[in-house]
Amino acid sequence: MSLFKSILATAIALVVSTSALAHDPKMHAEKDQMNCEKIEKHMQMMQKMDHSKMDMNDPAMKAMMANMGKMKQMYQKHCVTSNSDS
Questions:
Q1: What is the predicted pLDDT for the residue at 32?
Q2: H helices of the chain, where?
Q3: pTM of structure
């Protein structure tokens, strides 16, 4: 009986957590404006960090590095190219 309750609780938690993500991304269009100056500061901070002291096998480090990679792509796409066009 305990196993059934734990499976049921896991299933409910999964349904609740995924339903929170189900909304229209256009709702964020006004709030999520690209802040190129802020991203540029983060990019400079990452370049100055000593990566040799970091454990690249750590899951948290992997997630952070993946996030920074996405941030770098967004910066290149929205900030660097738009500034060079003007």
A1: 52
A2: 2-19, 36-48, 59-75, 81-85
A3: 0.46
